[in-house]
Every structure is written in C-alpha cells, then in structure tokens.
Amino acid sequence: MSRDIDDISNIVLKPRRVQILKLLLSQGTMRISDLRKALNAPASSVYYDVEILRANGLIIRDGPYVKITSKGGRMIIEKIEGLVSSNQETEDSVKKTEEITNVLLMRPLTINMYRLGPNTLLIYSMVIIVLGLITAFTQNYELLLLVFVEGMNVMPIGITIISILAYMGIALFIYKYLLGSEIVDLKLLSGILTSLIPLSLYPTIMALLTLWLPPYPLSIIDALLKALLPLVSLVILATVLSISSGKPMEYSLLFETLLLLIPSVIIYIVLFK
Length: 273
What we know:
14 helices; 7% strand; 2 domains; Arc Repressor Mutant, subunit A; mainly alpha; 3-stranded antiparallel sheet
C-alpha cells in the first residue's frame, strides 16, 4: 500500500490510532481487550479505531485478535514516526476531547448495538420501526423523509413507506458512491435500519405525551422532538457508515445532512407553513 501523509491524515494521525499501530508493531498479535488496557481508553473508542484501521488495510482482525499488516501498517508507521508528539499534556487533552466526541456522536451506543449481532439487530430494529409506523398510522402521522407530520388529504398514500425506502436508498448511495465502498452486507443493512429507530419513536412518544400534557407545552416538545430525533438518526447512521467504510464520520454526516435533512425541512415548510 502506498499513501502520502496527506491522504492518511484523517485516518491515522490520531494519537491513539498511532499507539495501536505501534503496540501491534512491537507486540505482534494482541487481543482488543489488551489494547484497551494498554491504552487506558474506553472500549467503544478502541473498537471504533480498530475498525477504521482494519477497513483501511492497516491491521487484520481475527475475532478478538488483531495484528498489523506488513505492507500497510508498518509502512505507515515508518512515514509518520516523527510526526506524532508524545507530549503527555497533549495526549490528555486529546483524550478528553475524544471522550466528549464519543458521547456526542453516540459511538458507544453504536458499537454496543453491533455486539448483538447483525441478525438480532435486524430483527429488533424492524420490530421497533414497524410498531412506530403502526402508531403513526393510528395517530394520523406521515413521515416526510425525516420529519413526521400530521396527515393531510393532499399527501399521497404510502408516503411514509416511500420515505423509509428513500432513506435506505440514500444511505446506500452515500456508502457506495460518495464514500467509495463496495461491500454491502447484513451488518451494514442492520445498522442502517437501526439508525431509523430514534426517528420511529416519535409517534409513540407523542401519543403518550398527548394523554398527559396540555397543548402548549406539548407543542414545544413536539418541535424539539422533530429537531432532535432526526439528528440522532443521522448521527447513528453516520457512525455506521464510517465504521463500515473506514472513512471519517464527518463526510458521512455532511452528505446525509444535505441529502436527507435539508430536503425534509424544505418539504415540511413548503407543505405545512
């Protein structure tokens, strides 16, 4: 593998990822759990970095074991050996920043959900999504891409199903053509469906709150849910695509926002405001 430093900066030039490569270079094959102990980092963060390095051909993973690749990881370490500072203060600052980033991007949630296995994850997500759609139907809600709205006569029948299919299609389009990945497997599909869970919870939450809250606070909560739940779905989907493709999450989130969130908001404003 031959890469320039500029090409790999978003993938490798993170202190912990360099430490992982150095540990594997010196120790050979290691368990992921041993890597976590050696790095004193959250398990979800180490797992995420391992997946990024594996997806880019820098390490090989065999179950709980990982090792560095000869023509990938070793060459990268040689190129960046003198570029990463080992200053403890800098590392502490980076570690705190990444801990906050992990929480905001919900990486621990995404990593832990994958531990269920793709088959179990697919079943759970489909059950929750179907229940959410049933509740939406009984409450007269329709899903316009990423925004649930009260049903209107001008809306085509089945717009909710069309929106879900569009969501999945756009996610696969981003994965294959914008992130340049080829392999579409059950793990990816189950992750895409799982990212729809926060969005599908909207009708159920509103149905429950309507029983207990007066109209005014309910309208405020409704606006907050319509803003936050689609964002949560986008963040989970971006993490799924990032892990699967090995590309930085920022790319996925940018494409998703442009192709899903912005059209959703525009359609909602045009039809209902």
